[in-house]
Amino acid sequence: MKCAFRLSNEVWIKRNSESLFDVAMGCFDGAEIFNLVGLYLLNTVAKKFGNKYVGPYRDNGLILIKGNSARVADKFRNDLQTLFEQFNLKITALIDQLSRRHIKPN
């Protein structure tokens, strides 16, 4: 199977592609597909861990864990990485990250 499309009555086939499904960077549907996949993954995380503080933030996911020790948070990070490996994905999870942005009026 190959990824193919037709343009001006000419068939274009992507090299080194084993499937018919492909989302190229910058394509028209790329943002919508990214949002759908991202929401699916965040929903899977929320169902698995029962965390109501899970949501998308720009092009990242954000999970808030309140009141847990560093050991519990690190175990959560390891479980989260294992979950994403089931989808053949890698994830970077940062623990104990506090950030505040101050917006100063002009």
Strands, helices and their partners?
Blueprint: E1 4-7, E2 10-13, H1 30-49, E3 54-57, E4 60-63, H2 70-85
Antiparallel strand pairs: 1-2, 3-4
Could you explain the architecture of this structure?
The chain is of the alpha+beta class and 106 residues long. It has a domain at 49-97. It is built from 2 helices and 4 strands; from the N terminus they run E-E-H-E-E-H. The protein has helices at residues 30-49, 70-85, and strands at 4-7, 10-13, 54-57, 60-63. Strands 1-2 form a two-stranded antiparallel ribbon. Strands 3-4 form a two-stranded antiparallel ribbon. The chain is elongated and about 60 Å long.
- Determine the fraction of residues in helical runs and give it as a percent range: 25-40%
Cα-to-Cα separation, first versus last residue: 58 Å
Helical segment count: 2
Largest sheet: 2 strands, antiparallel
Q: Which parts are unreliable, with pLDDT below 50 for 5 consecutive residues or more? A: none
Overall average residue pLDDT: 75
Using the alpha-carbon principal axes, give the shape.
elongated
CA gyration radius, whole angstroms: 19 Å
